[in-house]
Amino acid sequence: MKQFMLLSIAFFTISGTNLKHDAVSATFNIIEKGHVLLLEIEFDEENYIKFGDAQSLKVTKNDFGNYLNKTTSWKIDNEEIIPQVLHIKSVKQHTKVICFLSKAKKNIKTVTVHNKFLIDVENHSNIIQLDINNSFKDFRMHKDRIQLQVNY
After folding, report:
1. Do residues 141 and 128 lie in contact, with contact meaning Cβ atoms separated by under 8 Å?
2. Strands annotated E in 20-122
3. Cα angle for residues 82, 87, 89 (degrees, 5° grid)
4. Partners of 72 in beta bridges
5. What are the pLDDT tens digits along the chain (152 aa)?
6. Are 98 and 38 in contact (CB under 8 A)?
7. Beta strand pairing status for 72-76 and 36-44?
8. Cβ-based neighbour number of residue 90 at 10 Å
9. In whole angstroms, how far apart are CA 46 and each of 76, 90, 124, 133?
């Protein structure tokens, strides 16, 4: 009986690692940290390697920065912001990237986002999270909604 339980647990553990995600998405979080605005991005590494113009099987700062700037644009109070990739960390099939956006801004009035990141992945969504002005807002973008303007 003990062996059966161990085999059952092993089977479900192994088979569970190959399951596809229910929701295919990337998350973009603009967040105030101290005196700076950061953009934290989380996405499925396999989708990026397949669809994101990657030059290798690893997510690199240069390749990712080029792809991010090709597929997204960011404006805060009508000032265009170009994200600068600071750090990339991959854990299993997910990757988290931290980008510097700008020095912190007081009383942001508008945020405009144009986002086609991994839009060629079937049923892909880009979740935009804004953790600024002492408030939190989030929005879903997809192939039929690639432009977003948020007013505060």
Report:
1. yes
2. 25-33, 36-44, 72-76, 79-81, 84-91, 94-103, 110-115
3. 130
4. 115
5. 444 443 344 444 333 434 454 668 999 999 999 999 999 999 999 999 888 877 788 889 999 999 999 999 999 999 999 999 999 999 888 999 999 999 999 899 999 999 999 999 999 999 999 999 999 999 999 999 999 999 99
6. yes
7. unpaired
8. 13
9. 31, 11, 13, 34
Polymer length of the chain:
152
Distance of CA 86 to the CA centre of its chain: 14
CA dihedral (7, 8, 14, 15) positive or negative: positive
State the Cα–Cα distance between residues 111 and 113, nearest whole angstrom: 7
Beta bridge partners, 127, equal 27, 140
Q: What is the pLDDT of residue 58?
A: 85
On the CB side of 137, CA atoms within 13 Å amount to 13
Give Cα 143 to chain centroid, integer Å: 16
pLDDT of residue 81: 97
CA dist 107 and 152 (Å) reads: 8
Copy the structure tokens of residue 120.
Answer: 């060629």
Enclosing H/E stretch for 15: helix 2-16
Element (H, E) at 136: strand 135-141
